[in-house]
Amino acid sequence: MTAVTGVIVAAAVALGTSIWWYGRREERVAGRAVAAALRACALFLALSSPWLPVLRSSGGPRGHMAVLIDRSLSMSLPAGTSSGENRIERAVRAATRLAESRGDVRFWTFGDTAEPVTRGDLERLLPSARASRAADGIERARLDGADSVILFTDGELDDREASRRLAVRLGLGVREIRVGEAVGRHAIRNVDAPSAVAAGDTVELLVEIVGLGEHDDSVRIGLHHADSELAHAVVQAPAAGRSVIARLASPMPSGVGDAGWVALDARIAGVSEPWVRAAHRRAWLRIASPPSGAVLVSTDPDWEPRYLLPLLDRAVPGGARAFLRVGDGRYLSVGVEHLPGVPESSVRRAAERSSLLVLQGQSGTFPAWLAEAARRRPAILHLARGAGPVPGTPVNIGETLAGEWYPVTPPPPGPVAAFLLGLDPAALPPVLRLRGSSGRADQAVLAARQDRRGALRPVAVIGADGTRRWAVVLSEGTWRWAARGAVGMDLYRGLYGGLAAWLLEQAAPAPVRLDDPTPAAGETVRWRVAPDVRDLTLELRDAAGTLVWSDSSGVPPPTVTGAGLAAGDARFVARGRAGDAAFQVERPFHVASSAELAPRLQGPAIDVGAAIDAIPERMRGGGSPPVWPLAAAVLLLCAEWMWRRRVGLR
User: Fold this and answer.
1) How far apart are CA 117 and CA 129, in angstroms?
2) Containing H/E element for 161?
């Protein structure tokens, strides 16, 4: 309903109601026509208030028109299929024309935030914002004194409903002029990929595809490595504003080695420039070596491997193998395969690839390569067989303690305690020997009591150095518990199974890791830093290897913020110390195209010139009506009541 029509209808309703009331319902007294006129005027003002103008003082400032131009990244796309200009160029041209035809116009841009600009700045606008939120611009324009707002946008707003509600609440007239055609297309919104995969395994990616109403009934998406397609899937085309999930699965290509990183690309077929940026997404996967399991190397073999090896074979991914030294450079392999003569090079290779390295013997009898492997492996279990420092740990084994030492429960609190609760070792024999220790030990795992009523000493201790974990069993002859069966075997399994579980769990974080493995273009790259990291140096490089950003810190914060990158491949290098060990972490990652380039719901394009010509001189929003008509109506109703009393009406 137009303003004129609304006023006419309000006047007719007010006049008819008053005439009917005083003509049919009231007594016929002198002066009732005045009361009827007062009521008609009051009803007219109350009913027509939505269409009446807001009163302004003659000396006060007059509201102006604010023009908001969308500078989000999607405004860099073409304005139409046959147009040679992009959306922001069309928006600037239209805004300039509007300013030429209107006197008091002020310009703003909006994206992540709103900023005022001058008319001279319009030609230099770049579509770079990662969001398209108009509410901030509407609110700031209102605070600046605007009474009407024109939005030049492609229609792909992130806060359309919030902006509409804000305009209504502020009583501000807002008109949206869309400068881009709604081109039907599809894009990749998200790719869910595993962080690591073993060479030769099957990798599975879940790809979310969002659409804007393509004419085709289906979408074909492929999984590519280098120049070859590994797999593809055909899914039903999603409805406008909806999404579908495509599953892509393929064995890792044969050319990928046992370690390193590989890039896999998900691409929607049949998408051409400039829409292809949103229809392609890359995922970097770490190629991990298959788990090699536990490796036990004994330089002083006894009955322990007989009971420990089957337990580790079940508890450790990749199984377990044991090598017993029977001479200088000669080893015997036990386990699934019994080999009488194994060269030292094979034992060395197995130890260096193990996920859990178990050492049995006196540290002084270990060959140099085995001691070095103990310092480098992420998980170490040492079975003490003599005094001396334990390689790879801060523990020093002492001499044998006097007396007989019997296991006791409950165990000390700690990560292995849950494996030992509820056991009663009262009937178990003592260990053959228990040795003392010195140096740092974070926690005792199981205690033994001297002669059943004396002092308590630890049977095993555990600790961690940065991302490495270690455990030292200070007693000899724990195999005697397993030989007893029943409770003895339960205690044996609880002790060594708990130690293996704690040593291999991934609770210790990597020293430095990406907070978001696939950041969007323009977003700052952030890293999570482990608490014990010191002397950290971070370098951020783009796909060409050019140094983009670097930073050094002696004591880094938990989160380090870097720089924003353009879409494409990038790489970071982190160096520092975690605990007492030096580390270097290097990994590639992919910077995804901004979500602004993905299609979102929008209305049809309009004739921009005609839309500008149709803009009235002033627009008023659909907010609250002006206050003065309602106040005047209340005064008239009061005057009617007083007059009725004067002429004798109740």
Assistant:
1) 15
2) helix 160-170
